[in-house]
Amino acid sequence: MDKLELLFSKYKRNGSKKNRTAQMQRVKAVMRHAGVFHPEQLGNQHAYSFYRSLVMKDASARTIYYYYLALCIVWELMKRPNKPPKPLWF
Predict the structure, then answer these.
(1) Phi/psi at 66 (nearest 5 deg)?
(2) Dihedrals φ, ψ of 41, to 5°?
(3) Alpha-carbon distance 35 to 63, whole Å?
(4) What span, in angstroms and rounded, lies between the C-alpha atoms of 25 and 68?
(5) In sequence order, what DSSP letters do the residues of 9-29 get, joined into one string?
(6) pLDDT tens, 21-69?
(7) Torsion angle, alpha carbons of 51, 53, 56, 58, to 10
(8) Which of 44, 48, 54, 64 is surrounded by the most beta carbons within 10 Å?
């Protein structure tokens, strides 16, 4: 079990399983884009870079917002003091 699965294990037990799984897949996409292997390595610059790549791919504002919400969950689970950066394109 990788670090992200371990981080999300308790979170995925409650609520909509489909939504929680989709959020984890979104975080995995951000991690792949950033080239990191552990969620602790994700930072603000990784989030901005990923948002930029989504804009370049003509992703909708709603899609970008869903990625932002997934990153909010990761920041909350890692007990970081702030929220991840919001996309600048809203």
Answers:
(1) -65, -35
(2) -80, -15
(3) 21
(4) 13
(5) TTGGGSS-HHHHHHHHHHHHH
(6) 999 999 999 999 999 999 999 999 999 999 999 999 999 999 999 999 9
(7) -60
(8) 54
